[in-house]
Design a protein that fits this description.
Elements (H helix, E strand, L loop, with lengths): L1 H17 L2 H29 L2
């Protein structure tokens, strides 16, 4: 998940530099969602792994 999030972040940065605002915004939104999902799964696994 974190890897995909970083890939979409890089795509957003490159698209933003090249002037593709719509693609950059979409890629940044997907990167944010994937990062939040990664954090939730990581916290759940951390809590359940301690038991």
């Amino acid at each position: 998940m974190l890897g995909w999030s970083l890939i979409f972040l890089v795509i957003a940065i490159i698209a933003g530099v090249l002037g593709f605002g719509g693609i950059a915004g979409t890629a940044a939104g997907i990167a944010k969602i994937l990062f939040v999902v990664f954090l939730v799964i990581w916290i759940i696994s951390l809590v359940l792994g301690r038991r």
